[in-house]
Write a structure and sequence with these properties.
19 strands, 7 helices, alpha+beta, nine-stranded mixed beta sheet, 36% strand, single chain, six-stranded mixed beta sheet
């Protein structure tokens, strides 16, 4: 028999404004400890030097993580032109330099090539796996890898500010699996120069914005006290971007056992992912087909 996981059954989201210098896993571990939760996870890694939205799921909310991971996310980031680094950000050693600097018109003209369905080679220092090992571990050993390009959907890439010829601030909205550092690297090369990220902030992730976020200091101050649950956001908030499927009360027991049930009302199309709801509470995730929701993940609402 497996060892029973310690902690309390608490479910919901903790939307953290992650500070620089802290890894995503460290944040998850701190939130789990603060809430005394059995289960915790996050919906989309942020680099240690990056700041902004990190959605931490507790308990039954961990079942919603894939839907939030797939959602669009927005980043504001700075670029320094003229130098490439080993990490594609300011933390790495300089590996190449260029005296070329794009003008504003050239910079704006280069951005559309990075919008839509593109191919992106991850940074050498990234979490992708190479023969079972993380790329960042191999990079630390001095091993240079020939990483395979990966598809990325970019909804928009806009120039926000150009304080001087050496720097620019941009906003990126993209799907899952995007590396902002790779965007900066490739943009520099497309402009005939070199570039790296100077700072990066995730400003929204799916339905969550910085207005929803709390700081690690606030979490630590309330840790393991009755007031900690005041920092919890309901599971349903993480599903705001997913169609609902309203079900009747008599269907709830069947749904809880993983059986398809009739949908009273939905805006979903055939084959869409939906969340089944009764009296405002999410009961299951599933697929809508021919008037029924077919559950794929049942949410234990006693948690």
């Amino acid at each position: 028999m497996g060892r029973r996981r310690k902690g309390r059954d608490v479910s919901g989201w903790v939307i953290v404004d992650k500070p620089a210098g802290t890894g995503s896993t460290q944040v998850v571990n701190k939130v789990r400890w603060a809430f005394g939760a059995k289960k915790a996870g996050h919906a989309g890694t942020l680099d240690p030097d990056a700041t902004g939205i990190l959605a931490v799921a507790l308990g039954e909310a961990t079942k919603v993580i894939p839907l939030l991971t797939d959602a669009l996310k927005a980043y504001e980031f700075g670029i320094a032109f003229g130098t490439a680094t080993a990490t594609d950000d300011a933390s790495g050693a300089v590996i190449a330099e260029s005296d070329a600097r794009p003008d504003d018109a050239g910079l704006r003209a280069a951005l559309p090539a990075f919008v839509g369905d593109i191919e992106q080679v991850p940074p050498q220092v990234s979490a992708v796996k190479v023969e079972g090992e993380r790329a960042y571990d191999l990079a630390r050993e001095g091993i240079e890898m020939d990483l395979v390009a990966r598809p990325l959907y970019v909804e928009s890439l806009d120039l926000l500010d150009r304080p001087d010829p050496d720097h620019a601030t941009l906003r990126l909205v993209c799907g899952k699996g995007g590396y902002v550092r790779a965007i900066a690297r490739d943009l520099g090369e497309a402009l005939g120069t070199r570039a790296h990220v100077t700072h990066l902030r995730r400003i929204w992730s799916g339905p969550f914005t910085l207005d929803d976020a709390v700081t690690l200091d606030a979490i630590e101050a309330a840790a393991q006290t009755p007031g900690i649950d005041d920092l919890l956001t309901p599971i349903e908030a993480g599903l705001a971007h997913v169609p609902t499927a309203l079900v009747a009360g008599q269907s709830v027991p069947r749904l809880a056992n993983g059986n398809p049930v009739e949908v009273l009302r939905t805006d979903a199309d055939f084959g869409d992912t939906v969340w089944a709801v009764h009296e405002g509470r999410a009961l299951a995730l599933g697929t809508y087909r021919a008037g029924f929701v077919h559950p794929t993940r049942v949410l234990n609402r006693d948690a």
